[in-house]
Amino acid sequence: MKSGLGPRASGLGILIAIALRVSLARADSVTVGMFAPSAPFGGTAARVEFMTKLAHAVGAALGKDGIGRVYGRAGDFAGAVKKGDVHVAIVDARYAAITGGPGVVIAVSVRGGDDATSWQLVTRGAKSVLELRGKTIIVPSMGGREGDFVRNALYGGELAKDFFAKLDVAPDTASALASLGLGKADAALVPGGVDAPAGTTVIATLPAVSLPVVITYGLSDDARAKLVDALAAFHGDTLTAFHSANADIVHSLGRRMVAPEKHGPMAVPDVRIGFGDLISARAFSIPRADVKQFVAR
Question: Mean of the pLDDT values across residues 36-60?
Answer without folding.
Answer: 94
